[in-house]
Structures are given as C-alpha cells and as structure tokens.
Design brief:
The protein is α+β, with helices and mostly antiparallel strands. Helices cover about 25% and strands about 40% of the residues. It has an eight-stranded antiparallel sheet, covered by helices on one side. The protein has a two-stranded antiparallel sheet with strand order 1-2. The longest helix is centred in the N-terminal third of the chain and has 16 residues.
C-alpha cells in the first residue's frame, strides 16, 4: 500500500508539473511565422476576410475556379508581395504569402537579396535545406527561402 501511495504522489506531481503556464521561449517556438505589412499581420491559414481590411485595396486582384477545392482561388497583389487564398466552406484562407522584391522584409529583417548566412542568423538551422532552398516550419506555417546564385530570390509563407 505504501508503494501505491508513493507511486500515486509521483504521478500526481508529474501531471501537475505540466499544468503551469508555458514558458515564453516554448510559446515563441510554437508560434506560426507571420508576415507583417504595416498594421496587417498575415499568417498562412488566416481567414482573408479578417486580413483584408488591414491590408487595404490590392494593386490587382484575380480569381479563377479552383482545381483543388470547391470555389474560387483568389490572388491579391500588393507592392512587394502577393497573397493567394484557397476556399474552405464560406471562407477564403490565406494559402500563401510570397514576397516578390526587396521593398518588403520579414519581421526578422530578411529580404530578397539576403544571403543564406543572413537567413540562418535570423532563423537558425532550417528544418530542410538544399542548394536552392532553406525551409523552416513552425506553428503550421512553412517559411521557404528560395536561393539563386547565393542569394534569396523569393520568400514564401505557406500552409504547412
């Protein structure tokens, strides 16, 4: 019986240890990668209807029947970046944010033209790495840096 009480106390202590508030480093490690444009914070998977008011009117807009989903795929083009959406029920979810020139940066300061060393300095070791890409995944978002001639030529935030 004494062993059972000791075992029960140990089990309770282990279970309660996991009930505290997450430490900020752990919470930050799980947060999704977010693209920031002015006051707008955009994360792959967001409802575009919630993001659009903060972004304002796009420079151009295009929609076409989706070949993968029921509904319309939509493309919003802004200076320096493009957002594509995918339909999900009544919502349009941000499928991708693609940075297209060096006029915009990631919140960590990486831009088109940055070196792979700059990317690693800002983001650490990538989850996947190849000659032409550094890929980071966090919080359901895949952040991909496409490389060409030793420089970042495209930055993409995608639903993981």
């Amino acid at each position: 019986m004494k062993r059972f009480v000791v075992f029960a106390c140990l089990l309770a202590a282990l279970l309660l240890a996991g009930c505290g508030a997450p430490d900020s480093v752990d919470a930050a490690a799980q947060a999704a990668y977010v693209f920031q444009s002015g006051e707008a914070a955009v994360t792959a998977g967001d409802d575009m209807a919630q993001v659009l008011p903060a972004l304002g009117d796009p420079k151009s807009y295009f929609e076409a029947p989706s070949c993968a989903f029921d509904g319309l795929d939509k493309t919003y083009t802004y200076p320096g970046f493009v957002i594509t959406t995918q339909p999900e029920g009544e919502k349009d979810l941000v499928n991708a944010v693609v940075l297209t020139d060096d006029s915009v940066t990631t919140p960590e300061g990486i831009y088109i033209g940055s070196s792979p060393e700059d990317v690693r300095g800002a983001y650490g070791t990538p989850a996947e790495e190849g000659e032409t890409a550094l890929i980071y995944t966090r919080g359901g978002v895949k952040l991909t840096f496409i490389l060409e001639n030793g420089k970042v030529c495209s930055i993409e935030y995608l639903i993981a």
